Amino acid sequence: MDESFMRTKPVFPLLVSMALPMVISMFVNSLYNIVDSFFVAQISENAMIALSLVYPVQNLITAIAVGFGVGINAVIAYHLGAGDKKNANMAATHGLLFSAIHGIVITIASICIMPAFLRMFTSNKDVIHLGIQYSTIVFSFSLVIMLSISSEKIFQSVGRMKVTMFSLLCGAITNIILDPLFIFGIGIFPKMGIRGAAYATCIGQLLTLIVYLAVYIVSPIPVHISRQCCSLNKEIDFKLYAIGIPATLNMALPSLLISSLNALLALYSQSYVAVLGIYYKLQLFLYLPANGIIQGMRPIIGYNFGAKEHTRVKKIYKITLCMCGIIMAIGTAICLIASRQLISLFTNNPETIMAGQIALRVISAGFIASAVSVASSGALEGLGKGTQSLMISLCRYVVIIIPTAFLLSKIWGPVGVWNAFWIAELMTAVVAFMIYRKSVREQ
Asked: Is 398 exposed, middle or buried (0-12, 13-18, 19+ CB in 10 A)?
């Protein structure tokens, strides 16, 4: 399949054709996260709290995989746009090798730290026990996650978005089907509780990787993984990490934010910790369509940047920003209208429902503004400007929101933490727009 269509096809239909498969797969992917949490919540609220406490580390592992995958995607797309298939093949091969190494190291490290990590946020022995049960299983599959996401980014870099959609759908649907069977012991399956949720997730991830491998063998893509490309190449490796490390930090910053906010909220009640965990599950459902558009945009903007099509690069950014803004506006309306119903999916505790309803309505005030940060950060990653993208994320997840949440919590308690979200989004949007414009002018 010739990837030159990314330079010749009209921008809007091209972006839609690349983004739509990812939006669909992101919707289903977020749905299975919602379903996973829904079924875990039926076990007990302690199980839901355990899931919320494990989530930052789980998100960090995914962040490392996706962040490095962004580096793989950007380097391959750039070299394909420049007509250099040799280095594109080198980037794909080295990307998979380094991802495998990352997976092995992360498996060992994450399982070792979890008991101490959980005790930092709770003294409840049942919550700690459930958290260790769940995390030990899911973290054992870190290698699978790394290879699966790297494969996803390789296929995306050459425009094979339908393959990534199909692979993600297979994994997500498998997870959704297996969740109730494994958790509650339906039919021939034993009742495994929270361990069942973990096994369902891991099997879904494994199936996704198997689909990528099968498609690669049956239907070759423009880049190839080969032993000849395994030799050291400092320039390619530097590019992979120069883009991948900032992108990883971009993805990992939410974990730092969640851990910091968990520590603040735990001072008031474990219910607020549960609310934050529920919000981030819902946020996946709301933000992943926008992230699907960003994933569709990255290889296009990177390819055109490599081909020196700078006018086209600017047009791609503007259309992406508009599409993200529309999605965020819809998400805001849903949260304002159906906040109680959304929170009630995860808990029957009246106190948690009331707190969650207030949190969702307050936080959603910043959704539309966040479209600027999301689009600008994603475009900069596609252009290979990882450091500039990281600056936006630092403002969004650390520099503004954490101090603001701390100060406002002293005045308004937990409600102050919720208000910090929209304040940070508004301020970061201004910073993101300025950084993007400056980076583009420097071309």
From this structure: middle
For residue 128, the SS3 value is helix
Q: Which two tokens stand for residue 119?
A: 């005790």
To the nearest 10 degrees (0 to 180), the angle between helices 194-218 and 161-184 is 150
Tokens, residue 10: 């009209």
Please, how many CA atoms are within 13 Å of residue 224, restricted to the half-sphere of its CB? 9
In 3D space, the residue among 65, 68, 67, 73 whose CA is nearest the CA of residue 92 turns out to be 73
- Decide: 343 and 353 in contact? Cβ < 8 Å: yes
Give helix 45-81 / helix 142-157 axis angle, nearest 10°. 40
Chain centroid to CA 335: how far? 20
pLDDT for residue 203: 94
Tracing tokens 């699966």 back to the chain, one arrives at 148
- At 235-283, the pLDDT tens digits run 898 989 988 888 888 777 887 888 889 889 988 888 888 899 888 878 8
Helix residue spans in 125-269 (DSSP H): 125-139, 142-157, 161-184, 194-218, 234-266
DSSP states of 230-296 as a string? GS--HHHHHHHHHHHHHHHHHHHHHHHHHHHHHHHHHTT-HHHHHHHHHHHHHHHHHHHHHHHHHHH
Spatial distance between the Cα atoms of 260 and 271, rounded to a whole number of angstroms = 16
Structure tokens at 360: 């969702």
| Percentage of the chain lying above the pLDDT 90 cut | 39
How many CA atoms are closer than 13 Å to the CA of 411, on its beta-carbon side? 11
Spell out a b/e string for 37-58, using b for 16 or more CB atoms within 10 Å of the CB, else e. bebbbebebbbbbbbbbbbbbb
Distances (CA, A) of 60 to 57, 63, 110, 301: 5, 5, 10, 26
The span from the CA of 261 to the CA of 247, in Å, is: 22
DSSP letter string over 373-420? Answer: HHHHHHHHHHTT-HHHHHHHHHIIIIITHHHHHHHHHHHHTHHHHHHH
pLDDT tens for each residue of 282-307:
887 777 788 888 888 888 888 888 88
Task: Reduce the DSSP state of residue 309 to 3 states and report it.
Answer: coil
Instruction: Report how far apart, in Å, the C-alpha atoms of 29 and of each of 24, 167, 203, 258, 286 are.
Output: 9, 11, 14, 21, 11
- Closest C-alpha to 404, from 432, 389, 377, 423: 423
Going 119 to 120 to 124 to 130, the CA torsion angle's sign is negative
